[in-house]
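ARCHIVE CARD
CATEGORY: sequence design from structure
SOURCE FIELD: tokenized fold
FIELD CONTENT:
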């Protein structure tokens, strides 16, 4: 359990359409089981669950456990900082929302091309240093979604940071877009302990295509897909925490079981993972993690991640000789909802792309979604 951190980005919801409607009673049960089994580290952030995750942390954790028994990590929403003074205002608001006097781990959230200006021009590094001097932060760091060179730049500018948070999972390890391995190696070179985010790639490595899952199952019938993903990250020596974004009490129990029985991967098992990567890469054309960072920035309310997951499901279906009708129907049902824009409504403003940690060319991909899933005949059929 040493490396298991409770990620509070994908909590259970009472209303699936409204991320602010978190099922707090279930979260409390998850917290209790986590704590009973030796868990301590809770990771939240200002924008998670449309701004309510930090309050949920207060109600489900801070108000129910002694402060010294829990470790709290949250993040400066640097993407919303428009002037230097905003940082102080956000920080104070976060202390209040979380109901604490200090944060154990405080990160500059998501250093990338889009946030570069605010990070460097407002000297966010000096801001968090000052908070550490004031005793309001115990450990300072940053989360990162950019090219390896930008990681070097940040570590050179912030040499006294205590840790970094990186996207690492077996699918992104050697990918050309995320480059987890290179980023991890840079963190090691600079002697920075690493917190892993997205170890299961937003759930993609839990819900593997059938062909990939079969490879794991034939080797070990009992092992859940998630366990392979968590073991991969757990084996990295410089990793001290793995953020596991559990979404139900059952998932929490199963994750605890995995962490309690975690074993080092053998060479044979690494080979199986490589095979699974090849299959998933072939079958998942759009590498969206469904983080939904993009969604609120779309002026025409396109449910971006839902269209991408439908597109991927359709691709898998086609590759496996299935019927493409299901995906087309799912798309049309979504697009028909008056709250949602259709893929064809995309005005290519690019506003969403600045917020995508996976560097997806969303406006281009929307054209693919429209071409592939918007079937006028099906629409006519459904409306009769
Ligand atoms: S590029 Fe398209 S999907 Fe992205 S915010 Fe603009 S309209 Fe929405
Ligand atoms: S498109 Fe990018 S930002 Fe939007 S949900 Fe997918 S990964 Fe997240």
């Amino acid at each position: 359990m040493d490396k298991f951190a409770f990620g509070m980005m994908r909590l259970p919801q009472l209303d699936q359409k409204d991320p602010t409607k978190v099922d707090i009673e279930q979260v409390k049960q998850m917290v209790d089981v986590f704590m009973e089994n030796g868990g301590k580290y809770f990771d939240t952030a200002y924008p998670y669950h449309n701004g309510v995750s930090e309050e949920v942390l207060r109600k489900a954790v801070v108000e129910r456990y002694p402060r010294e028994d829990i470790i709290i990590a949250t993040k400066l929403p640097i993407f919303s900082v428009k002037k230097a003074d905003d940082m102080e205002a956000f920080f104070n608001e976060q202390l209040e929302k979380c109901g604490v006097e200090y944060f154990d781990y405080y990160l500059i959230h998501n250093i990338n091309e889009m946030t570069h200006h605010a990070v460097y021009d407002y000297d966010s590094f000096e801001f968090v240093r000052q908070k550490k001097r004031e005793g309001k932060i115990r450990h300072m760091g940053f989360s990162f979604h950019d090219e390896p060179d930008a990681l070097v730049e940040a570590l050179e500018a912030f040499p006294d940071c205590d840790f970094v948070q990186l996207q690492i999972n077996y699918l992104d390890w050697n990918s050309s877009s995320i480059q987890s391995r290179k980023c991890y190696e840079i963190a090691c070179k600079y002697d920075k302990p690493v917190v892993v985010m997205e170890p299961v790639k937003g759930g993609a490595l839990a819900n593997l295509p059938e062909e990939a899952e079969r490879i794991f199952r034939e080797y070990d019938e009992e092992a859940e897909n998630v366990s392979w993903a968590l073991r991969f990250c757990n084996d990295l020596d410089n990793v001290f925490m793995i953020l596991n974004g559990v979404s139900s009490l059952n998932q929490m129990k199963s994750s605890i079981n995995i962490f309690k029985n975690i074993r080092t991967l053998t060479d044979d098992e690494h080979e199986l993972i490589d095979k699974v990567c090849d299959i998933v890469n072939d079958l998942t054309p759009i590498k969206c993690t469904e983080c939904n960072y993009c969604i609120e920035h779309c002026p025409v309310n396109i449910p971006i991640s839902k269209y991408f997951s439908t597109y991927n499901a359709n691709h898998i279906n086609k590759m496996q000789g299935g019927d493409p009708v299901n995906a087309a129907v799912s798309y049309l049902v979504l697009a028909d909802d008056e709250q949602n824009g259709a893929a064809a409504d995309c005005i290519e403003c690019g506003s969403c792309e600045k917020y995508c940690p996976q560097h997806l060319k969303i406006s281009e991909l929307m054209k693919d979604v429209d071409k592939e899933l918007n079937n006028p005949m099906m629409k006519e059929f459904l409306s009769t």
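CARD ANNOTATION: The longest helix spans residues 267-283. Strands lie at 4-7, 41-43, 71-76, 103-111, 137-144, 163-167, 194-197, 239-244.
SHELF: design records, drawer C
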